[in-house]
Amino acid sequence: MIDPFGRAVTYLRVSVTDRCNYRCNYCMAEDMTFLPRKDLLTLEELQRICSVFIGLGVQKLRITGGEPLVRRDILSLFEHLGAQLGSGLDELTLTTNGALLDKFSKPLKDLGVKRVNVSLDTLDKTKFEELTRLGKYDDVMRGIDAAVDAGLKVKINAVALKGINDSEMDQLLAWCGERGFDLSVIESMPMGDIGQLRDDHFWSLEEAKADIEKRWTLTPSNYQTGGPSRYHNIAQTGQRIGFIAPYSHNFCESCNRVRLTCTGVLYLCLGQDDSVDLRAPLREGASDQELRDIILKAMERKPKGHDFDHTRLADGAQVVRFMNTTGG
Ligand code: SAM
Ligand code: SF4
Protein backbone atom coordinates (compact mmCIF):
# COMPACT_ATOMS: atom_id res chain seq x y z
CA MET A 1 0.00 0.00 0.00
CA ILE A 2 1.63 3.18 -1.17
CA ASP A 3 -0.09 6.47 -0.48
CA PRO A 4 -0.08 9.51 -2.80
CA PHE A 5 3.04 10.85 -1.07
CA GLY A 6 5.04 7.69 -1.73
CA ARG A 7 4.83 6.41 1.83
CA ALA A 8 4.47 2.65 2.23
CA VAL A 9 1.84 1.75 4.81
CA THR A 10 3.16 -1.27 6.70
CA TYR A 11 1.83 -0.68 10.21
CA LEU A 12 -1.76 -1.10 11.40
CA ARG A 13 -2.94 -0.17 14.87
CA VAL A 14 -6.16 -1.86 15.83
CA SER A 15 -8.43 -0.83 18.66
CA VAL A 16 -10.29 -3.96 19.74
CA THR A 17 -12.60 -2.30 22.26
CA ASP A 18 -13.53 1.14 23.52
CA ARG A 19 -14.01 -0.26 27.03
CA CYS A 20 -11.51 -0.01 29.80
CA ASN A 21 -11.08 -1.01 33.41
CA TYR A 22 -9.52 2.44 34.07
CA ARG A 23 -10.76 5.98 33.50
CA CYS A 24 -7.50 7.93 33.09
CA ASN A 25 -8.49 11.53 33.40
CA TYR A 26 -6.71 12.68 30.21
CA CYS A 27 -8.31 9.91 28.17
CA MET A 28 -11.88 9.46 29.35
CA ALA A 29 -14.65 11.15 31.24
CA GLU A 30 -15.44 9.55 34.57
CA ASP A 31 -18.98 8.71 33.47
CA MET A 32 -17.87 7.51 30.04
CA THR A 33 -20.62 5.86 28.01
CA PHE A 34 -19.35 2.97 25.96
CA LEU A 35 -20.58 1.87 22.58
CA PRO A 36 -23.34 -0.70 22.21
CA ARG A 37 -21.77 -4.12 21.72
CA LYS A 38 -23.40 -4.66 18.35
CA ASP A 39 -21.40 -1.72 16.99
CA LEU A 40 -18.09 -3.38 17.78
CA LEU A 41 -16.45 -5.63 15.26
CA THR A 42 -16.60 -9.24 16.37
CA LEU A 43 -13.29 -10.99 16.90
CA GLU A 44 -13.88 -12.88 13.64
CA GLU A 45 -14.45 -9.59 11.81
CA LEU A 46 -11.28 -8.15 13.35
CA GLN A 47 -9.33 -11.23 12.31
CA ARG A 48 -10.63 -11.00 8.78
CA ILE A 49 -9.80 -7.31 8.33
CA CYS A 50 -6.34 -7.76 9.86
CA SER A 51 -5.65 -10.69 7.53
CA VAL A 52 -6.66 -8.60 4.53
CA PHE A 53 -4.27 -5.86 5.70
CA ILE A 54 -1.46 -8.41 6.14
CA GLY A 55 -2.15 -9.58 2.58
CA LEU A 56 -1.77 -5.96 1.49
CA GLY A 57 1.65 -5.58 3.06
CA VAL A 58 1.09 -4.75 6.72
CA GLN A 59 4.08 -6.15 8.61
CA LYS A 60 3.40 -4.80 12.04
CA LEU A 61 0.17 -4.97 14.02
CA ARG A 62 -0.40 -3.26 17.34
CA ILE A 63 -3.47 -4.25 19.32
CA THR A 64 -4.80 -1.46 21.49
CA GLY A 65 -8.04 0.00 22.82
CA GLY A 66 -9.58 0.95 25.28
CA GLU A 67 -7.89 -1.76 27.22
CA PRO A 68 -7.32 -4.62 24.79
CA LEU A 69 -7.00 -7.23 27.53
CA VAL A 70 -10.55 -6.61 28.81
CA ARG A 71 -12.02 -7.80 25.52
CA ARG A 72 -13.55 -11.24 26.05
CA ASP A 73 -11.62 -14.04 24.31
CA ILE A 74 -8.95 -11.62 23.13
CA LEU A 75 -6.42 -14.45 23.07
CA SER A 76 -8.28 -16.02 20.14
CA LEU A 77 -7.44 -12.92 18.09
CA PHE A 78 -3.78 -13.15 19.13
CA GLU A 79 -3.83 -16.83 18.27
CA HIS A 80 -5.16 -16.18 14.78
CA LEU A 81 -2.79 -13.30 14.11
CA GLY A 82 0.19 -14.97 15.78
CA ALA A 83 -0.20 -17.81 13.30
CA GLN A 84 0.55 -15.32 10.51
CA LEU A 85 3.87 -14.26 12.03
CA GLY A 86 6.63 -15.13 9.60
CA SER A 87 4.29 -15.24 6.63
CA GLY A 88 3.84 -11.55 5.89
CA LEU A 89 3.47 -10.36 9.47
CA ASP A 90 6.76 -9.53 11.25
CA GLU A 91 5.54 -8.20 14.55
CA LEU A 92 2.46 -8.54 16.72
CA THR A 93 2.37 -6.32 19.74
CA LEU A 94 0.04 -4.51 22.13
CA THR A 95 -0.38 -1.41 24.24
CA THR A 96 -1.93 -2.05 27.63
CA ASN A 97 -2.43 -0.44 31.01
CA GLY A 98 -0.80 -3.55 32.45
CA ALA A 99 -3.55 -4.39 34.92
CA LEU A 100 -4.18 -7.82 33.43
CA LEU A 101 -0.66 -8.72 32.36
CA ASP A 102 -0.30 -10.99 35.35
CA LYS A 103 -2.80 -13.32 33.72
CA PHE A 104 -2.01 -12.70 30.05
CA SER A 105 1.77 -12.33 29.71
CA LYS A 106 2.62 -16.00 29.39
CA PRO A 107 -0.12 -16.87 26.86
CA LEU A 108 0.70 -13.74 24.83
CA LYS A 109 4.36 -14.74 24.69
CA ASP A 110 3.41 -18.26 23.69
CA LEU A 111 1.31 -16.86 20.83
CA GLY A 112 4.22 -14.89 19.38
CA VAL A 113 4.09 -11.49 21.10
CA LYS A 114 7.62 -10.34 21.92
CA ARG A 115 7.13 -6.80 23.19
CA VAL A 116 4.48 -4.87 25.09
CA ASN A 117 4.01 -1.19 25.76
CA VAL A 118 2.71 -0.55 29.26
CA SER A 119 1.24 2.83 30.12
CA LEU A 120 2.41 4.11 33.48
CA ASP A 121 2.45 7.83 34.14
CA THR A 122 3.63 7.82 37.72
CA LEU A 123 5.33 5.61 40.31
CA ASP A 124 3.43 7.32 43.10
CA LYS A 125 0.69 4.91 44.11
CA THR A 126 -1.73 7.57 45.37
CA LYS A 127 -1.24 9.75 42.31
CA PHE A 128 -1.60 6.74 40.03
CA GLU A 129 -4.88 5.76 41.58
CA GLU A 130 -6.18 9.34 41.36
CA LEU A 131 -5.11 9.72 37.74
CA THR A 132 -6.51 6.41 36.54
CA ARG A 133 -9.57 6.68 38.83
CA LEU A 134 -10.17 2.90 38.83
CA GLY A 135 -6.58 1.69 38.55
CA LYS A 136 -4.77 -0.41 41.15
CA TYR A 137 -1.06 0.33 41.21
CA ASP A 138 -0.12 -3.06 42.66
CA ASP A 139 -1.88 -4.88 39.82
CA VAL A 140 0.24 -3.01 37.27
CA MET A 141 3.46 -3.74 39.13
CA ARG A 142 2.51 -7.42 39.30
CA GLY A 143 1.61 -7.31 35.61
CA ILE A 144 4.95 -5.79 34.65
CA ASP A 145 6.81 -8.43 36.68
CA ALA A 146 4.81 -11.16 34.96
CA ALA A 147 5.65 -9.70 31.54
CA VAL A 148 9.35 -9.69 32.37
CA ASP A 149 9.16 -13.23 33.76
CA ALA A 150 7.42 -14.40 30.59
CA GLY A 151 10.28 -12.96 28.52
CA LEU A 152 8.36 -10.04 27.02
CA LYS A 153 10.31 -6.87 26.32
CA VAL A 154 8.58 -4.01 28.12
CA LYS A 155 8.47 -0.36 27.11
CA ILE A 156 6.85 2.19 29.39
CA ASN A 157 4.62 4.97 28.02
CA ALA A 158 4.04 8.04 30.16
CA VAL A 159 1.93 11.04 29.18
CA ALA A 160 3.75 14.26 30.16
CA LEU A 161 1.51 16.05 32.64
CA LYS A 162 2.47 19.34 34.23
CA GLY A 163 1.77 19.41 37.94
CA ILE A 164 1.29 15.65 37.95
CA ASN A 165 4.41 13.81 36.81
CA ASP A 166 6.74 16.64 35.80
CA SER A 167 8.53 16.35 39.14
CA GLU A 168 8.87 12.60 38.77
CA MET A 169 10.81 12.16 35.57
CA ASP A 170 14.07 11.37 37.40
CA GLN A 171 12.38 8.66 39.38
CA LEU A 172 10.75 7.18 36.27
CA LEU A 173 14.01 7.25 34.32
CA ALA A 174 15.98 5.66 37.14
CA TRP A 175 13.34 2.97 37.62
CA CYS A 176 13.21 2.21 33.89
CA GLY A 177 17.02 2.06 33.89
CA GLU A 178 17.05 -0.45 36.75
CA ARG A 179 14.40 -2.59 35.10
CA GLY A 180 15.92 -2.40 31.61
CA PHE A 181 12.92 -0.64 30.07
CA ASP A 182 12.84 2.11 27.46
CA LEU A 183 10.54 5.02 28.27
CA SER A 184 8.38 6.99 25.87
CA VAL A 185 7.14 10.35 27.03
CA ILE A 186 3.98 11.36 25.18
CA GLU A 187 2.70 14.88 24.76
CA SER A 188 -0.97 15.07 25.68
CA MET A 189 -3.30 15.36 22.72
CA PRO A 190 -6.63 17.09 22.23
CA MET A 191 -8.71 13.95 21.90
CA GLY A 192 -12.38 13.77 22.79
CA ASP A 193 -14.23 16.06 25.13
CA ILE A 194 -13.12 15.03 28.59
CA GLY A 195 -14.97 17.80 30.34
CA GLN A 196 -11.99 19.73 31.68
CA LEU A 197 -9.52 22.17 30.26
CA ARG A 198 -6.64 20.01 29.15
CA ASP A 199 -4.40 23.03 28.95
CA ASP A 200 -4.11 22.94 32.76
CA HIS A 201 -1.74 20.00 32.62
CA PHE A 202 -0.18 20.45 29.20
CA TRP A 203 3.58 20.01 29.45
CA SER A 204 5.35 20.43 26.14
CA LEU A 205 7.99 17.88 25.30
CA GLU A 206 10.38 20.65 24.49
CA GLU A 207 10.13 21.76 28.10
CA ALA A 208 10.17 18.18 29.39
CA LYS A 209 13.29 17.34 27.41
CA ALA A 210 15.09 20.52 28.43
CA ASP A 211 14.32 19.74 32.05
CA ILE A 212 15.47 16.12 31.81
CA GLU A 213 18.68 17.15 30.05
CA LYS A 214 19.70 19.23 33.05
CA ARG A 215 20.42 15.97 34.86
CA TRP A 216 20.66 13.21 32.27
CA THR A 217 22.93 12.90 29.24
CA LEU A 218 20.86 12.26 26.15
CA THR A 219 22.30 11.59 22.73
CA PRO A 220 20.11 11.16 19.66
CA SER A 221 19.65 7.50 18.75
CA ASN A 222 19.30 6.02 15.27
CA TYR A 223 16.40 3.95 16.51
CA GLN A 224 13.38 4.71 14.31
CA THR A 225 9.84 3.40 14.29
CA GLY A 226 8.38 5.47 11.46
CA GLY A 227 6.13 7.06 14.09
CA PRO A 228 6.11 10.44 15.75
CA SER A 229 8.82 9.55 18.26
CA ARG A 230 12.38 10.66 18.47
CA TYR A 231 14.64 8.42 20.55
CA HIS A 232 17.71 9.29 22.59
CA ASN A 233 20.18 7.09 24.43
CA ILE A 234 20.55 7.85 28.12
CA ALA A 235 24.22 7.62 29.09
CA GLN A 236 23.54 7.01 32.78
CA THR A 237 21.18 4.05 32.32
CA GLY A 238 21.96 2.61 28.89
CA GLN A 239 18.23 2.68 28.07
CA ARG A 240 16.41 4.86 25.55
CA ILE A 241 13.95 7.67 26.03
CA GLY A 242 11.51 8.50 23.25
CA PHE A 243 9.66 11.78 22.93
CA ILE A 244 6.37 11.37 21.15
CA ALA A 245 5.08 14.72 20.00
CA PRO A 246 2.02 14.13 17.88
CA TYR A 247 1.69 17.85 17.08
CA SER A 248 5.01 17.95 15.43
CA HIS A 249 4.80 17.71 11.65
CA ASN A 250 8.37 16.48 11.45
CA PHE A 251 7.34 12.88 11.26
CA CYS A 252 4.34 12.97 8.97
CA GLU A 253 6.60 12.54 5.99
CA SER A 254 7.76 9.14 7.21
CA CYS A 255 4.34 8.06 8.49
CA ASN A 256 3.87 4.34 7.84
CA ARG A 257 0.66 3.68 9.73
CA VAL A 258 -3.11 3.70 9.66
CA ARG A 259 -5.61 2.96 12.42
CA LEU A 260 -8.67 0.77 12.63
CA THR A 261 -11.25 1.51 15.31
CA CYS A 262 -13.17 -1.12 17.22
CA THR A 263 -16.21 -0.28 15.07
CA GLY A 264 -14.36 -0.92 11.83
CA VAL A 265 -13.59 2.64 10.82
CA LEU A 266 -10.24 3.09 9.14
CA TYR A 267 -8.54 6.39 10.01
CA LEU A 268 -5.79 7.41 7.67
CA CYS A 269 -4.23 9.92 10.08
CA LEU A 270 -4.47 10.24 13.86
CA GLY A 271 -5.09 13.94 13.62
CA GLN A 272 -7.60 14.09 10.76
CA ASP A 273 -11.21 13.05 10.60
CA ASP A 274 -11.14 11.55 7.14
CA SER A 275 -12.09 7.90 7.46
CA VAL A 276 -13.47 4.92 5.63
CA ASP A 277 -16.01 2.50 7.05
CA LEU A 278 -15.07 -1.15 6.64
CA ARG A 279 -17.80 -2.61 8.85
CA ALA A 280 -20.71 -1.99 6.48
CA PRO A 281 -19.12 -3.73 3.49
CA LEU A 282 -17.93 -6.52 5.77
CA ARG A 283 -21.44 -7.08 7.14
CA GLU A 284 -22.93 -6.81 3.66
CA GLY A 285 -20.82 -9.79 2.59
CA ALA A 286 -17.88 -8.15 0.79
CA SER A 287 -15.29 -10.62 -0.48
CA ASP A 288 -11.65 -10.30 0.53
CA GLN A 289 -10.92 -8.83 -2.89
CA GLU A 290 -13.64 -6.19 -2.40
CA LEU A 291 -12.24 -5.32 1.02
CA ARG A 292 -8.77 -5.03 -0.49
CA ASP A 293 -10.10 -2.66 -3.15
CA ILE A 294 -11.82 -0.47 -0.54
CA ILE A 295 -8.64 -0.30 1.54
CA LEU A 296 -6.42 0.46 -1.45
CA LYS A 297 -8.82 3.22 -2.50
CA ALA A 298 -8.69 4.63 1.04
CA MET A 299 -4.89 4.85 0.86
CA GLU A 300 -5.29 7.36 -1.96
CA ARG A 301 -6.83 9.65 0.66
CA LYS A 302 -4.07 9.45 3.27
CA PRO A 303 -3.31 13.08 4.01
CA LYS A 304 0.14 14.57 3.90
CA GLY A 305 -0.03 15.61 7.55
CA HIS A 306 -2.31 16.44 10.43
CA ASP A 307 -4.05 19.57 11.62
CA PHE A 308 -3.36 19.80 15.33
CA ASP A 309 -2.79 23.22 16.70
CA HIS A 310 -1.94 23.28 20.37
CA THR A 311 -2.60 26.99 20.65
CA ARG A 312 -6.28 26.24 20.04
CA LEU A 313 -6.47 23.67 22.81
CA ALA A 314 -8.23 26.04 25.16
CA ASP A 315 -11.20 26.14 22.75
CA GLY A 316 -11.95 22.59 23.84
CA ALA A 317 -11.35 19.40 21.93
CA GLN A 318 -10.29 19.96 18.36
CA VAL A 319 -10.65 16.43 17.21
CA VAL A 320 -13.69 15.09 18.95
CA ARG A 321 -12.69 11.49 18.91
CA PHE A 322 -11.83 9.62 22.05
CA MET A 323 -8.40 8.04 22.16
CA ASN A 324 -9.91 4.82 23.46
CA THR A 325 -11.99 4.43 20.29
CA THR A 326 -9.30 5.37 17.81
CA GLY A 327 -6.60 3.51 19.68
CA GLY A 328 -3.61 5.32 21.06
N1 SAM B 1 -5.47 1.14 27.61
C1 SAM B 1 -4.21 0.98 26.99
C2 SAM B 1 -3.18 1.86 27.64
O1 SAM B 1 -3.54 2.73 28.42
O2 SAM B 1 -2.01 1.66 27.33
C3 SAM B 1 -4.23 1.21 25.50
C4 SAM B 1 -5.03 2.34 24.96
S1 SAM B 1 -4.51 3.96 25.45
C5 SAM B 1 -5.70 4.97 24.63
C6 SAM B 1 -3.01 4.14 24.51
C7 SAM B 1 -2.08 5.23 24.93
O3 SAM B 1 -2.71 6.47 24.69
C8 SAM B 1 -1.70 5.21 26.41
O4 SAM B 1 -0.29 5.24 26.51
C9 SAM B 1 -2.30 6.48 26.94
O5 SAM B 1 -1.52 7.03 27.98
C10 SAM B 1 -2.33 7.36 25.72
N2 SAM B 1 -3.31 8.44 25.78
C11 SAM B 1 -4.61 8.39 26.13
N3 SAM B 1 -5.19 9.61 26.03
C12 SAM B 1 -4.22 10.45 25.60
C13 SAM B 1 -4.18 11.83 25.29
N4 SAM B 1 -5.25 12.59 25.41
N5 SAM B 1 -3.00 12.36 24.87
C14 SAM B 1 -1.89 11.58 24.74
N6 SAM B 1 -1.88 10.27 25.00
C15 SAM B 1 -3.01 9.71 25.43
FE1 SF4 C 1 -7.99 3.10 29.65
FE2 SF4 C 1 -5.68 3.37 28.40
FE3 SF4 C 1 -7.51 5.34 28.29
FE4 SF4 C 1 -6.29 4.87 30.58
S1 SF4 C 1 -5.33 5.56 28.67
S2 SF4 C 1 -8.51 5.15 30.32
S3 SF4 C 1 -5.99 2.72 30.53
S4 SF4 C 1 -7.72 3.34 27.45
Descriptive report:
- This protein is of the alpha/beta class and 328 residues long.
- The protein has a single domain (11-326), classed as TIM Barrel.
- 29% of the residues lie in helices and 18% in strands.
- The protein contains 10 helices and 12 strands.
- The chain has helices at residues 43-55, 74-82, 101-110, 125-132, 137-150, 169-179, 205-213, 279-283, 288-299, 323-326, and strands spanning 11-15, 60-64, 91-96, 115-119, 153-160, 182-187, 218-220, 229-234, 240-244, 257-260, 265-267, 275-277.
- A 12-stranded mixed β-sheet has the order 7-8-9-6-5-4-3-2-1-10-11-12.
- A hairpin with a 7-residue loop joins strand 11 (265-267) and strand 12 (275-277).
- Helix 1 (43-55) packs parallel to helix 2 (74-82) and helix 1 packs across helix 9.
- The chain is globular, with a radius of gyration of 19 Å.
- The two termini are 22 Å apart.
- The model is unreliable at 313-320 (pLDDT under 50).
- S-adenosylmethionine binds at residues 20, 26-27, 64-65, 67, 95-97, 119, 157, 159, 186, 188-189, 191, 323-324, 328.
